[in-house]
Specification:
Number of domains: 3
Number of strands: 15
CATH class of the largest domain: Alpha Beta
CATH topology of the largest domain: Aspartate Aminotransferase, domain 2
Largest sheet: 7 strands, mixed
CATH architecture of the largest domain: 3-Layer(aba) Sandwich
Structural class: alpha/beta
Shape: globular
Radius of gyration: 27 Å
Length: 450
C-alpha cells in the first residue's frame, strides 16, 4: 500500500515554487512557513495526498486568515440595533475624527494649557455632562459596572447598600448586580419582594450602618401585573432626611427623550439628577451612542469622594475614549443633530419606508444576479437592555435556499455579515444596517451566494 504522505513535497521545495514564492513578497516569511507546515501536517495526519497547486491554494487561504485582524468591522444585519456581541454603538463621524486627531500626536490629556500646569483628564467631558444633565459634577470610568463599583466603594464601603429585591438583575455575560455590589466592599441588603417594594421597606432597613440606597433600572426585562416600586422622587426625600446618599444605576444612559420616535419608558439622566439622586451612573456606549465608558454624574461632594478613591485611577479611561465621548456629547447640545448624526439614534429614527427603499435597492442587485430572495416585513429590537419589550417594525431580505450555508458564508466573507435564521429562512434585517453599508452588503450577499 502506497503511503500518501511520502508524496507530499518538502517545505523547502514548496518555498521555491512560483505560487508559494509570490506569497513571500506579500507576507512575512515566518507566517508563510508556519502556515505551510500546518497544511502539510494536517495532510499527513489525514493521509491525504495534495498536489502543489492544491497546497498553494490552501496556503493562500491560511495565510490570509492568519494575518486578518482578530477584531474586524462587521455588518450587523441581525435587526438588533444595539448588539452587545457586535460592539454595541457604532461611533459618530465626529467621534471617529476626534480619535484620529488625538491619537496622531501628543494631547493636553492632563495638562492645563491656560495655567501651564498639570490638569485633570476628567475636565474634557465634565462641563458637557454638567450642562446636559444638570449635575454639579461628573467623572468618567471605563464601563457602567465599574461606575457602580466605584460609587459604592466610595460611599458605602463596609456599610449597608440597600436595594429592592426586584432590581437585583443579571446583565450580559452572567454578571449579576448583587455580585458587582459585593465586589465594591458594600454589604448588600435586600428589601421588598420580587414584584413589590414600598417606601416603608427602605425606611425599616435604614440605620446607622447604611451607606447608600441603590436604585437599579430593570433595563433588560419588564415586570407587569401586581407590581410596585419606589421611584427616585419618593426615595430621595427619605434618604435626604437620614443623610443617606442615593445611587441610581440607569444602565443605558439616555440623555434626550426619544418619544418622537415612539420610544418611551427609559429614564433620562437629567430627570434622575433633578429628582434627587446623589449619583447617577450609566453606560456611554448604549443609547448615548459613544465609546465604552461608565459615566457618573451627581452631587459635587459625592463626586469628590469618587475622585479620591484609588479605584478611580484603576478604572480611568484613556485619551481615545475621552476624545470620542466629548465629541459625542457635543452633538447632544442640539438634540435634532444628535438624532441625525449619532448612528444608533439615526437607525432608531429610520422610517419603515426608508428601510423598505434600501431593501429594494439591494433586491434589485440580487435579482440581476438571479439570486432567489424576497423582501419581507420583519421585527427588530433595540438590544443591550434598552427599552425592554419594545419592538421595531423593519424590512428584511429573506433567503430560503441553503440558508444555513449562506449564513456561514456571510460570516466568513471579506466583510463579515452577521444575520439571523428564522423559521428556516436567512433574514438580512435592514433595521441595524448602516446606510453607508448597503452597497457592501449587496456585494457580500452576491459573493456568498455565488
Amino acid at each position: 500500500m502506497t503511503d500518501s504522505r511520502r508524496g507530499l513535497p518538502s517545505v523547502g521545495k514548496l518555498l521555491e515554487s512560483s505560487e508559494v514564492h509570490s506569497l513571500l513578497d506579500q507576507f512575512p516569511r515566518s507566517v508563510v512557513v508556519q502556515s505551510l507546515r500546518s497544511i502539510l501536517d494536517e495532510a499527513r495526519l489525514s493521509h491525504r495526498e495534495l498536489s502543489p497547486q492544491e497546497i498553494a491554494a490552501a496556503l493562500k487561504v491560511k495565510v490570509d486568515d492568519s494575518v486578518r485582524p482578530a477584531l474586524q468591522r462587521v455588518i450587523n444585519a441581525t435587526g438588533i440595533v444595539l448588539h452587545t456581541n457586535l460592539g454595541r454603538a457604532p461611533l459618530a463621524d465626529c467621534a471617529i475624527a476626534a480619535i484620529a486627531e488625538t491619537s496622531s500626536g501628543y494631547t493636553n490629556l492632563e495638562y492645563d494649557l491656560i495655567a501651564g500646569a498639570r490638569g485633570s483628564r476628567y475636565s474634557h467631558c465634565v462641563e458637557l455632562l454638567k450642562e446636559l444633565t444638570g449635575a454639579e459634577d461628573a467623572i468618567v470610568v471605563n464601563n457602567c459596572a465599574a461606575s457602580l463599583v466605584l460609587a459604592l466603594s466610595s460611599l458605602s464601603f463596609g456599610k449597608d447598600a440597600i436595594v429592592s429585591r426586584g432590581e437585583l438583575v443579571e446583565i450580559g455575560g452572567s454578571f449579576r448586580i448583587p455580585d458587582i455590589m459585593r465586589a465594591s466592599g458594600a454589604r448588600l441588603v435586600e428589601v421588598g419582594t420580587t414584584n413589590r417594594t414600598h417606601v416603608d421597606d427602605y425606611i425599616r432597613a435604614a440605620g446607622p450602618d447604611t451607606g447608600a440606597f441603590v436604585k437599579v433600572h430593570r433595563s433588560n426585562f419588564t415586570v407587569n401585573g401586581f407590581v410596585a416600586e419606589v421611584g427616585i422622587d419618593r426615595l430621595a426625600p427619605i434618604a435626604s432626611e437620614r443623610g443617606i446618599p442615593v445611587i441610581h444605576d440607569l444602565g443605558s444612559g439616555l440623555l434626550i427623550s426619544l418619544e418622537s420616535l415612539g420610544l418611551t419608558g427609559e429614564p433620562l439622566a437629567g430627570e434622575a439628577v433633578r429628582t434627587g439622586a446623589t449619583l447617577v451612573v450609566m453606560s456611554g456606549d448604549k443609547l448615548l451612542g459613544g465609546p465604552q465608558s461608565g459615566i457618573i454624574v451627581g452631587k459635587a461632594t459625592a463626586i469628590a469622594e469618587l475622585k479620591k478613591n484609588p479605584l478611580a485611577r484603576a478604572l480611568r479611561v484613556d485619551k481615545l475614549t475621552i476624545a470620542a465621548l466629548a465629541a459625542t456629547l457635543q452633538l447632544y447640545r442640539d438634540p435634532a443633530r444628535a438624532i441625525r448624526e449619532i448612528p444608533i439614534l439615526s437607525l432608531l429614527a429610520h422610517s419603515v419606508a426608508q428601510l423598505a427603499a434600501r431593501a429594494q435597492m439591494i433586491s434589485r442587485t440580487l435579482t440581476e444576479m438571479d439570486i432567489l430572495h424576497r423582501v419581507i416585513a420583519s421585527v427588530g429590537s433595540i438590544g443591550a437592555g434598552a427599552f425592554p419589550g419594545a419592538t421595531l417594525e423593519s424590512r428584511a431580505i429573506a433567503m430560503t435556499v441553503n440558508a444555513v450555508a449562506l449564513e456561514q458564508m456571510l460570516r466568513r466573507g471579506p466583510v463579515p455579515v452577521v444575520a439571523r435564521i428564522h423559521d428556516g429562512e436567512l433574514l438580512i434585517d435592514m433595521r441595524s444596517v448602516l446606510p453607508a453599508e448597503d452597497t457592501i452588503l449587496a456585494d457580500m450577499i452576491v459573493r456568498a451566494a455565488a
